[in-house]
Every structure is written in C-alpha cells, then in structure tokens.
Amino acid sequence: MRKPFFKKTHNAWYVHHQGRMVRLGTKREEAFQAYHELKASQAPASQADSVASLAECFLEWCRKNRSPRTYEWYKEFLSSFVKSIGTRVCGSAV
Question: pLDDT higher for 91 or 62?
C-alpha cells in the first residue's frame, strides 16, 4: 500500500488501496492514524498466496488442459519470472 497523500482539491488526505482512492481525513494526524489502522486490518499474506505457488497452480492446470508445447512455454516463462522477483512475493503485490 502506498503512503497517504494530500489532495488540495478536496482538502483531505487519501491513500490508494486495492485500486481505489480512500479518504483518510482532513488532518494529517488523523489521516495517518486511519492509514495505520487500514494497514493493520489487512490479512497477512499466506504462503499459499505467493507468486510462486500461484504460478505452480496455473502450470498444473495448464499441463492438464493445454498442449504440451503451451505448457512448456508457460513453464519457461513463469520459472524465469518467479526467479526474478523471488519466491516470497505475494500475488497481490504483482
């Protein structure tokens, strides 16, 4: 989640959260308090949500439902992608 920012046109603090702008308040202190509460309310990412595990699930589906050539292409691409970003990155962060 990005840090809060002040929007002059609305005279209020906002943050981008899950693709939307969320109004946090008009005063800096209350906005940052709301920001920290919003961050704390988010569920922690589990290992099942990692990019590596999502790629693995997709590849298993692809192996069963697509041609071997298509599976191999995705396997090569996703292996490289997962290696470049690391295995502990949450899928929602990508």
Answer: 62
Separation in Å, CA 61 to CA 50, 55, 64: 17, 10, 5
Task: Kindly report the number of other CB atoms within 10 A of residue 48's CB atom.
Answer: 9
Amino acid (1-letter code) at residue 54:
L
Q: pLDDT tens digit string along 11-55?
A: 999 999 888 999 999 999 999 999 999 888 876 555 557 888 889
Segments making up each domain of the chain, as ranges: 5-41, 47-93
> How far does CA 37 lie from the centroid of its chain?
18
Give CA–CA dist 91/54, Å, rounded: 7
